[in-house]
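Kindly inspect the following:
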Amino acid sequence: MGLPALRLPSFCRLPTREEILHKRPLGRFTHYLARPVFWHPHRHNFARGMAIGTFVGSLPFFGHVLSILLIGLWRRAYIPIAVIMPFVVTGPLTIVPFFYASYHFGFWLLDQIGLAPPITIHYVDIHRLFHGQIGMAAMGDRLWHAYLITWLGSLLFGGALAIIAYWGTLWSWRLWVYWRLRLRQRHRHPTHTPRSS
C-alpha cells in the first residue's frame, strides 16, 4: 500500500510554473525559466532556492522577485520556493520588526568600530517634521543614513539566515526521506502481535 502524497495547506501553496511564466517576469528572456530543472525539486536545488529567497528577501529594496529569478537562473535553484521566501522573511507581520532589528544591529556594529554616523533618525524627528521644526532636507539626510545602516544589518542578518536555511533544508530533507523510508518499510512489513488465548 503506497503512502499518501504530501499536501501543503492552501495558505502555504507554492506558485505554479504556469502562474509565474504567465506574468513574463523576465520579458523576452522568460522562456529560460521554462526549463524543467527549475521546477522539479530535489534536495540541492530546493536548498539553493531557500537560501536565495531568504537572502534577497532580507534586503531593503524593491524588485525581490526579479533579483531572485536572475540569481535562481544562475544557480539552478528551485524557483517556486525561492519566489515565496521573501514573503516569509519580510512579510506583513515580520517586515517591521526585521528591519527595525537590522537598523539597530547595523548601528551597533558601526558604533563598535567608531564609524556610526552622527546623524540618526528618531521618532521625535517625525513629530518635529509635522510641526515644521525640521526641514525636508535634514529629514531626508536622516532617512538616507538610516537606510544605509539598515542595509548593513540586513546583509548580515540575511546572510546568516540564508546559511541556516540552506543547511537546515539539506538536513531536514535527509530526515524527511529517512522517515518516509522507515514508514514505507512498516507498511510493507507490518508487525503482528500474537493474540492471547
